[in-house]
Amino acid sequence: MSVLVFIDHADGHVKKSSLEALTYGAKVAAQLGTSAEGLLLGTVTEDLAALGKYGVTKIHQAANEALNNLDTQVYAAAIAEAVTASGATVIIFSHTPTGKAVAARVSAKLKAGLVTGACALPDTSNGFVVKKGVFSGKAFANVSINTAVKIISLNPNSYMTVAGEGTAAVAPLAISAGAAKVKVTAVNKVSGDVPLTEADIVVSGGRGLKGPENWGILLDLAKVLGAATACSRPVGDAHWRPHHEHVGQTGVQVAPNLYIAVGISGAIQHLAGVNRSKIIVVINKDPEAPFFKAADYGIVGDAFEVLPKLTEAIKKMKASA
Amino acid sequence: MKILVCVSKTPDTTSKVAFTDGNTKFDEAGVQWIINPYDEWYSLVRAIELKEKDASVVIHMVTVGGADTEPIIRKALALGGDEAIRVNSDSTDSYYIAAQIAEIAKQGGYDLIFTGKETLDYNGSSIGGMVAELTDAPYISLATKFDLEGTTATVTREIEGGEEVAEVALPAVVSCQKGMAEQRIPNMRGIMAARTKPLKVTEPVAADALTAIVNFELPPAKAGVKLVDAENVEELVRLLHEEAKAI
Ligand SMILES: Cc1cc2nc3c(=O)[nH]c(=O)nc-3n(C[C@H](O)[C@H](O)[C@H](O)COP(=O)(O)OP(=O)(O)OC[C@H]3O[C@@H](n4cnc5c(N)ncnc54)[C@H](O)[C@@H]3O)c2cc1C
């Protein structure tokens, strides 16, 4: 019995969401009176032993360069072998593009119950019950997993990374997985930007900004905050911003520490994608905008006047801090 | 070329979410049902576009659900597609549902299976991956673009912080999201045609449910917004820094 955490990586580095998953996995293991181990498919440039500080005792690594590209069939086969080798009874993924694709496959392969988008530690007092967001953030469900092996995919930003002391043993893992059927031919990364789902702070603009030429003031604010940028659906639909920035029920769901909404009315479909944010700030010239009901802080005012001032004030605060 | 499009019903996006029976059941009173937007706007419409380019393409839809899903299926058929299959069963367990779809997939010998990236109610995003595993097919998730050249698909998919282009030989399973196609409204001719398109009902095969919903919870209500004067943005910065510790 142990907990196995799938470690995702890109460009030679372990992803932040995986550090959260490691911390979470170590906590689940402690709760079950067992140990947590990590599994990394592919190669990274950083020192894996150092991941021990997140509470895992051992990292299994299949250091095969071909595994740096995702083929869910190959991954699922490799993970199934690692589960057998480590005797894991709980497998943790991050609920990220890779994690979502692979966790489902592993669940079907092992016939192991899966809860996706978990937002809290499992309740193991009576069975194994995991809390997850449902109805696009409008509610939570407590879901019991009724199989011997259990799989959880953890929502990014819902469990804080805790680094302590410790190093992990790194053990090479030989896998017999076949050749990939999915061939990656190009990777286009929006360089320099903070990925939306990993961001601590998100600054988001709506139709109230009137046109793409006005986004400069929003980008300036995002820059001083080190924030990712997002937008409402009509803004994405009108191609004022790239469609992957569209948040909401039919777009990306985010849960940052801070979500700043500028010129967004707060339609129910928009809120569904952002209401898991810890703190919401709304800047809107209409005091009746529904978004204020979902906000923690608000300014009733014209974005074109408020944003530049806000950016300056934050710069000042940062300079004096 | 045979395409299987997985569709499910979901509450309208403006529905009030409430629960009954000691918070164990979704309160369906007054709820309008729609086709899950990811299934409709992206996977189904993209399949229809492929058929418009190549008339030999056959589109079947599959849904796992009770008789109450039929109006939704008729609406999907009004957009296009040749026939629909309803597996007569209600379940909220992804594995059970995937096992039903995999069975239909195996019997029908499809070249391509489309799912939406997730449903708006249970947000599982797992049916595609499970069906792929159960049918031993490659799986590409979160597709924003899909093109076909003979039996090779070129798919653009979302990855963290960008996108990736991948090639795969069919058969394959693909989950679809925004970018794949544009929303369409069914026209009168489509609606008339849908009335006579076959809607087959089959009984489920034996499969295990691996999970069960214990109960639901609503998020705690917000304490209420603290408004700051537009002339005093420094106060907002102070609150975010000192009180919320968010910057
Ligand atoms: C099935 C379905 C799914 C949907 N999914 C999504 C989704 O995923 N995400 C999403 O965002 N929407 C979604 N929508 C659309 C949603 O219903 C709203 O129409 C949309 O969110 C509105 O976008 P907005 O707030 O940018 O624009 P508007 O509603 O037009 O609001 C603009 C706001 O800007 C304010 N404003 C104007 N000028 C200024 C100024 N100078 N300074 C400050 N404020 C100003 C106005 O007071 C107003 O509140 C969906 C709709 C449907 C039917």
Short characterization:
Chain A has helices at residues 16-32, 72-86, 97-110, 216-225, 233-237, 268-274, 303-320, and strands at 3-7, 9-10, 13-14, 36-41, 58-62, 90-94, 113-118, 129-134, 139-145, 150-154, 169-172, 183-189, 201-205, 228-231, 258-262, 279-284, 297-300. Chain A is an alpha/beta fold.
Describe the structure.
Chain A is α/β, with parallel strands linked by helices and 321 residues long. Chain A folds into two domains: 3-172, HUPs (Rossmann fold), CATH 3.40.50.620; 196-320, TPP-binding domain (Rossmann fold), CATH 3.40.50. Chain A is built from seven helices and 17 strands. Chain A has a seven-stranded parallel beta sheet with strand order 7-10-6-1-4-5-11, with helices on both faces. Chain A has a five-stranded parallel beta sheet with strand order 14-13-15-16-17. The model of chain A has no long low-confidence stretch (mean pLDDT 95). Chain B has 247 residues and is of the alpha/beta class. Chain B has a single domain (2-219), classed as HUPs (Rossmann fold). Helix content of chain B is 28%, strand content 32%. A nine-stranded mixed beta sheet of chain B has the order 11-10-9-12-8-1-6-7-13, sandwiched between helices. Chain B has a two-stranded antiparallel sheet with strand order 2-5. A two-stranded antiparallel sheet of chain B has the order 3-4. Classes of the chains: A alpha/beta (321), B alpha/beta (247). At the A-B interface, helix 2, helix 3, strand 7, strand 8 and strand 9 of A face helix 1, helix 3, helix 4, strand 9 and strand 10 of B. Bound molecules: flavin-adenine dinucleotide. Flavin-adenine dinucleotide is lined by residues 206-208, 232-235, 248-251, 263-265, 267, 269-270, 273, 284-286, 289, 302-304 of chain A.
